[in-house]
Amino acid sequence: MSTENNAPxxxxxxxxxxxxxxxxxxxxxxxxxxxxxxxxYLHVGHAKSICLNFGLAEDYQGKCNLRMDDTxxxxxxxxxxxxxxxxxxxxxxxxxxxxxxxxxxFDALYDYAVELIKSGKAFVCDLNAxxxxxxxxxxxxxxxxxxxxxxxxxxxxxLFTRMRNGEFPDxxxxxxxxxxxxxxxxxxxxxxxxxxxxxxxxxxxxxxCIYPMYDYTHCISDAxxxxxxxxxxxxxxxxxxxxxxxxxxxxxxCHPRQYEFSRLExxxxxxxxxxxxxxxxxxxxxxxNDPRMPTIEGMRRRGFSPAGIRLFAQRIGVSKGENIIDMSxxxxxxxxxxxxxxxxxxxxxxxIKVTLTNFDAAVTASRSAxxxxxxxxxxxxxxxxxxxxxxxxxxxxxxxxxxxxxLTAGGEVRLRYSYVIKCDEVxxxxxxxxxxxxxxxDHDTLGKNPExxxxxxxxxxxxxxxxxxxxxxxxxxxxxxxxxxAVRGDDGEYVDFRQFLNPESxxxxxxxxxxxxxxxxxxxxxxxxxxxxxxxxxxxxxxxxRAVFNRTVGLRDNWSK
Length: 561
Ligand code: ATP
Ligand code: MG
Description:
The chain is an alpha/beta fold and 561 residues long. It has 12 helices and 27 strands. It has helices at residues 13-23, 44-59, 78-90, 106-118, 129-136, 153-164, 214-224, 240-248, 273-281, 296-302, 306-316, 327-341; strands at 31-34, 63-68, 100-101, 122-125, 174-177, 192-196, 210-212, 229-233, 257-261, 265-266, 324-325, 344-345, 347-348, 351-356, 367-370, 380-383, 388-392, 412-415, 420-428, 434-442, 458-459, 461-463, 468-475, 506-513, 525-528, 532-536, 547-553. A 7-stranded mixed sheet has the order 12-25-26-27-23-24-13, with helices on one face. Strand 18 (412-415) and strand 19 form a beta hairpin. Helix 7 crosses helix 8. The radius of gyration is 31 Å and the shape is elongated. The chain starts with 12 loop residues before the first helix and ends in an 8-residue tail after the last strand. The protein binds adenosine-5'-triphosphate (ATP) and magnesium ion. Residues 35-37, 45-46, 48-49, 232-233, 263-264, 271-273 line the site of adenosine-5'-triphosphate (ATP).
């Protein structure tokens, strides 16, 4: 990632720690991991974490594991596992060895729990959830010891075995660590490490009716994989003492170090799987991969390129400070990468018919044009002209505003890669709407300036006879509020973020586009000249049959003004 765009490596506190650990000989190589829970599709916040973890492994020639943190069977599925793998690969990263699963370690985790019981550091507790809450205390008051805390090792071993064997109902018992109910850190107040839950697991099926908790599972999984630097977001800072406590109190040869960085928050988007899931479940978007979703699959379908997202991750940096980033930063990075990657063609999204009255097949010539002004290797194509062409409705103004350089009644404009034309007549329907322009070609202007006058404006166009029809989906931001989940009403309560959905976030039009695009494969990115970047839809575009485009982003930021 550092060599891409020849951008210099921007250091951060994590790189500094790694540099020191390598220099001091603490580690000879680094191992990181990306540990998503397969309970949804990955979003742009995960992209930050992926670029960080896999990017560090690449830069330091270390390794990065992909580990599914699958300890909540009810919410997890193979569909989510598959989409997570796809997203990581699509971003251009390669995990070390096979995909790993926390559930691969269920036996080991059980054995460590037995070890903790034997050393008197874990006990089976019969308090129910409500009682447990009452005993836990608060941020200002210490908790109270559970009445079951002093069970003998033999009794705990017997009860834990029977928990595993399914002798007790769900929720009736837990296994807890014996740390300190008076600790200032509530995470250390005898945390639960196992609960009884009869739920079918997407990988272990019905083998287990007890499942380990996240904090307990995570540190041991890291240690079993020989992770050197375990990077997570800031909300886990208070969990670090527990991470270390568990590893210090079991027989395990490796003790990874946890470091926290701030979560990415992207304005005009949501970065919570739970809230994104709500949009999908309520049918407010067209699935997790809707091009308006800030999911990696959504961004992919929208036409964002992996290089653009990686550039974005590089720009937003890694620190412990707030990481609230405007959407324009993401769109800007994407646009910058697309500029050089995308062939350019002409398309008319909102057409008016222009009849070229003096078109003469024997005289009027077409030219060929490069697909990219700075990349001759992209090739060229003929841009055919015909008697009837389409131009963009807003490139014509009957009553032009000051400094207008496009077409107007009696005025002239150049057709891109073609002639200068003059508008001689404006034809309207009964409602006064312009339906056609009759224009004449100045045949002496192909590839040269007209004699004795300047024509400044250049507009895009397509030949009616040669262009193809394409379905074009014009996407815009999904929300009208920069922080849709942080708006409070008069009563001080959060307003439901679904109220701030942008009703204009999707408009579909039938456009006319140069026929070259019909041959493009799905997920081909183009610049439509003067309009923006567009991609052939990954699912609906049918090569050679039917063109379907999604608008990725405009040519410039239209939101910040
Ligand atoms: P969500 O709240 O969306 O469910 P999560 O943190 O619960 O997110 P996980 O699947 O546990 O989702 O996340 C996997 C990894 O991605 C974790 O290491 C987590 O810290 C990181 N991550 C999640 N969201 C962000 C974010 N917004 N910015 C940076 N990293 C993130
Ligand atoms: Mg999580």
